[in-house]
Amino acid sequence: MNEFSSPVRAGPDDGAVIRERLAAERRDTDARIAALHSDFEGIVEANALVAVDDEHDPEGSSTAFERAHVASLLARARDHLDEVDRALERLERDEYGFCEGCGEPIPPDRLEVRPAATTCVRCAAAAPR
């Protein structure tokens, strides 16, 4: 394969390839959650060693921001893990790869980029944010 050729893509009916793609996504997300959890615990532990007065400590507000930022990333990673688990459930029920909005097949390109996608591009674009 050269730099101009595209990889072979699995169709919605190729369950083994899709299952492996979702399993890899799940492993990556689990690793991200573990790393973020470790980061969060490190921030909390570092703050416990210092008497922090956010109101008067010039570093207090940045520490609070950092803690909130990591907590937000951790929540998003956990939400993504739930999305991947639901995608695996849809695969088991032979419902994977179909748009929850219009019922049409989700294009393989979209599923390759977002294996847990539940909508086609058209329905995703029409959904309120």
Q: What does it look like?
A:
This protein has about 130 residues and is mainly α. Helix content is about 60%, strand content about 0%. The protein has helices at about 15-50, 60-90, 110-115, 120-125. α1 runs antiparallel to α2 (about 60-90). The longest helix has about 35 residues, at about 15-50. The two termini are about 40 Å apart.
Kindly summarize this structure in a few lines.
By secondary structure, this protein is mainly α. The protein contains four helices and no strands. The two termini are 39 Å apart.
List the helices and strands and how they pair.
Blueprint: H1 15-48, H2 60-92, H3 108-113, H4 121-126
Helix pairs in contact: 1-2
Order of helices and strands: HHHH
Sketch the major β-sheet: none
**Which stretches of 5+ consecutive residues score pLDDT under 50?**
1-13
Taking all residues together, what is the mean pLDDT? Answer: 84
Helix content: 55-70%
User: Using DSSP, what is the number of strands?
Assistant: 0
> In percent, how much strand structure appears in the residues?
under 5%
Distance linking N and C termini: 39 Å
If you compute it from the alpha carbons, what radius of gyration comes out, rounded to the nearest whole angstrom?
20 Å
Strand pairing plus helix content: what structural class? mainly alpha
Shape: elongated
Number of helices: 4
